[in-house]
Design brief:
The chain is α/β, with parallel strands linked by helices. It folds into two domains: about 210 residues, Rossmann fold (3-Layer(aba) Sandwich), CATH 3.40.50.2000; about 170 residues, Glycogen Phosphorylase B (Rossmann fold), CATH 3.40.50. The chain is built from 16 helices and 16 strands. The protein is globular. The two termini are about 30 Å apart. The C terminus is likely disordered.
C-alpha cells in the first residue's frame, strides 16, 4: 500500500480567501510549493497539503469548518478557522492536530513548512503515530533579532530539527542552522513556460513581493526617480508594474501617483490568476533584497526561479544562493544593491535589448534544466522515504547544494 506524505504549510487559494473573508496577504509559499507537490504526485508520491487555512484575523467571529479541496490536482485540507481573537490560534492548532491524527493510518511522513507554534499538536500527533518527520526550513533564524518571538522560533526549529529524519533548506547557508542529515538544498521546481515575447517594444518590468527597505523597495523608487531626471529616454523604454503590500507601500503609492504615473503602475495585492497574467506579459523580473541584511541570507528569493521559468530576464542583487544558480551571462546580477547600480543595469538593458533577450533565454534554459520537476520530485520522494519499492537515497546523494 502506497504511504501518504502530508505537507503541513500555510498555503492559501484565491477561492479560500474569498470564502473565509481572509485578509489579503502575500501567499509566499504558493509559487514554490504547488508546482513541487504537483511534480511529486506525477512521479508517484501520494502527497497531500494540510494548510493552516488562515491569515491575520479580523475579529469577525465567523466559524469556518475544515474543508478539502484541490489546487492544480493536489489534495489540500484546510484547517478549521474561527475568526476570533486569541482563540483563533488555539482552534487552528487543535484542528491541525486532529487532521494529522485522523490521517495517521496511511501516513508515512509529515513535512513541516518551517516550525511555528500552530504546528505543536500536529507535531505531537506525528510522534505518537510513529510517522517520520521532515523539516522544510524556508525562513531561517535571524541573528539580528533577539525578541521573544525570535527566541521561541529558534527553539522550535531546534525541536523539529532533532525529530527529523531529513531536512530541506532554502539556501546553502541554512545548513549551518540545523544538525539534521541528510539535508537537501531545495529551491523549488521550474517547468519551462514557452511564451513568445517581443523585445523591440516597451519592456514590462515586474517588481513583486513584500515592499520594504529590506526587499529593495526604496532602491527601486530612487533608481527610477534618478532615471527620470537624468535619462528619461531610457526610462520611457520600460513599463514598471509593482505588486504587493508592505511598510513602504503607502510611500510607493504616493510617489507613483505624483511623480512616476507615466512609467509605473502600482496594483497592490493581486490574485494568483492575475499574477500569472502579469508573468506572461512581463519581460523582466526584479529581485532587490539587500544582501547584507540577515533577512536576505536566511531565506531564498524563490521568485527568481519563477521569473526565469516563465522566461523573464532576472535582475537581482547578489543575495542568498542566486549567484550559485545564475551565471553572469544568464541574468543581470547587481554588483551593489544601490539605486545607482540598478539604474546602470536598466540603462544597459534599454540600449542592448538583444543581449537582454539572450540572457533571459539562457537563464530559462539553465533553471529549467537544473530544477527539472521530475528530477527534483524524485529526490524529494527519496528524502521523504515515500517510494515503497525503492530505498531512500544515501546521505551522500541528498546532502548537496545544487
Amino acid at each position: 500500500m502506497k504511504r501518504r506524505v502530508l505537507y503541513i504549510c500555510s498555503l492559501l487559494s484565491d477561492q479560500l480567501i474569498e470564502k473565509r473573508h481572509l485578509r489579503p496577504m502575500a501567499n509566499t509559499c504558493f509559487g514554490r510549493l504547488v508546482p513541487t507537490l504537483r511534480a511529486c504526485r506525477e512521479v508517484g508520491v501520494n502527497v497531500w497539503a494540510i494548510s493552516l487555512g488562515r491569515s491575520r484575523q479580523r475579529s469577525s467571529c465567523r466559524w469556518h469548518s475544515a474543508t478539502v479541496s484541490r489546487i492544480e490536482g493536489v489534495p489540500v485540507v484546510f484547517a478549521t478557522y474561527w475568526d476570533c481573537p486569541v482563540l483563533t490560534h488555539v482552534i487552528t492548532m487543535c484542528s491541525l492536530g486532529l487532521i494529522v491524527w485522523r490521517l495517521r493510518r496511511r501516513t508515512g511522513t509529515v513535512v513541516f513548512y518551517n516550525a511555528i507554534p500552530h504546528y505543536a499538536l500536529a507535531f505531537l500527533a506525528v510522534l505518537a503515530s510513529g510517522a517520520h518527520c521532515v523539516l522544510d526550513l524556508e525562513d531561517g533564524i535571524r541573528s539580528d533579532l533577539k525578541d521573544i518571538k525570535s527566541r521561541i522560533g529558534g527553539r522550535l526549529v531546534s525541536i523539529w530539527d532533532r525529530a527529523s529524519i531529513g531536512a530541506m533548506v532554502a539556501n546553502s547557508r541554512l545548513h549551518e542552522q540545523i544538525g539534521t542529515r541528510p539535508a537537501y538544498c531545495f529551491y523549488g521546481v521550474a517547468r519551462e513556460m514557452s511564451i513568445a515575447r517581443h523585445w523591440d517594444h516597451t519592456l514590462q518590468v515586474l517588481f513583486s513581493g513584500f515592499l520594504s527597505p529590506e526587499t529593495g523597495a526604496r532602491i527601486f523608487i530612487d533608481a527610477l526617480l534618478t532615471l527620470k531626471e537624468e535619462a528619461l529616454d531610457a526610462l520611457s523604454c520600460f513599463h514598471f508594474v509593482v505588486v504587493g503590500e508592505g511598510s513602504l507601500a503607502p510611500e510607493i503609492r504616493e510617489v507613483v501617483a505624483n511623480r512616476l504615473s507615466a512609467h509605473v503602475e502600482y496594483l497592490g495585492r493581486v490574485s494568483d490568476c492575475q499574477y500569472h497574467h502579469l508573468l506572461r506579459r512581463s519581460h523582466i523580473g526584479l529581485c532587490l533584497k539587500m544582501p547584507d541584511h540577515s533577512f536576505g541570507q536566511t531565506t531564498f528569493p524563490s521568485k527568481v526561479i519563477e521569473f526565469a521559468a516563465w522566461g523573464l530576464l532576472v535582475v537581482s542583487s547578489r543575495v542568498s544562493d542566486v549567484p550559485l544558480l545564475f551565471s553572469e551571462d544568464s541574468a543581470y546580477l547587481l554588483d551593489e544593491a544601490t539605486p545607482e547600480c540598478l539604474g546602470r543595469v536598466l540603462l544597459e538593458i534599454a540600449r542592448r535589448r538583444g543581449d537582454a533577450k539572450s540572457r533571459a533565454e539562457k537563464g530559462q534554459a539553465t533553471i529549467t534544466e537544473r530544477l527539472n520537476p521530475h528530477v527534483v520530485a524524485t529526490e524529494l520522494g527519496n528524502l521523504w522515504q515515500a517510494f515503497p519499492t525503492r530505498e531512500a537515497a544515501s546521505a551522500n546523494r541528498l546532502e548537496l547544494t545544487r
